[in-house]
Amino acid sequence: MDELESIRQRKMEELQKSLQGRQFPASPITLTDNDLDQSVSKYPLVVVDCWAQWCGPCRMLSPVIDELASELQGKVVFGKLNVDENKMTAVKFGITSIPAMLVFREGKLVDQIIGAVPKQSIMEKLQPYM
User: Fold this and answer.
1) Which residue is catalytic, options 31, 36, 50, 55?
2) Domain residue limits, the chain
């Protein structure tokens, strides 16, 4: 093994170790006003489902979000933010109707998905960011 190959191998091992430390949850994480910024910066691609307990369409969308979190584990992290309990985030991002999903890439808001849209539509909307 020459020196270049040795360096390449060592760098690959370092990269794999660093990625192992970053666990991608297989189910949505619960987010709050206090931890939203930290959470969206921790992972490369985060989708925040803004919902409320009284919202029928939000409850219809919930199992879809759960499925996507499992299917896209390692690529996308899904979070749930109750807008009734976390009003600062709703105001900050101009959430006026729910369900609404905020798409963050590398900690920056890059897109929104408004309404109870089908699973396939969510997948299509996320594809350019993966």
Assistant:
1) 55
2) 24-129
**pLDDT, tens only, 41-67:** 999 999 999 999 999 999 999 999 999
CA distances for 54 relative to 59, 104, 118, angstroms: 8, 26, 20
Catalytic residue among 58, 90, 102, 103: 58
Low-confidence ranges of the chain (pLDDT < 50): 21
Q: Is 50 among the catalytic positions?
A: no
**For the structural domain made of 24-129, what CATH number should be given?**
3.40.30.10
Alpha-carbon gap, residue 9 to 84, rounded angstroms: 50
- Are the CB atoms for 116 and 57 separated by under 8 Å? yes
Using CA atoms, how far apart are residues 122 and 25, in angstroms rounded to an integer? 19
pLDDT, position 15? 60
Concerning whether 58 is annotated as a catalytic residue, the answer is yes
Q: What is the secondary structure of 50-86 as a DSSP string?
A: EE-TT-HHHHHHHHHHHHHHHHTTTT-EEEEEETTT-
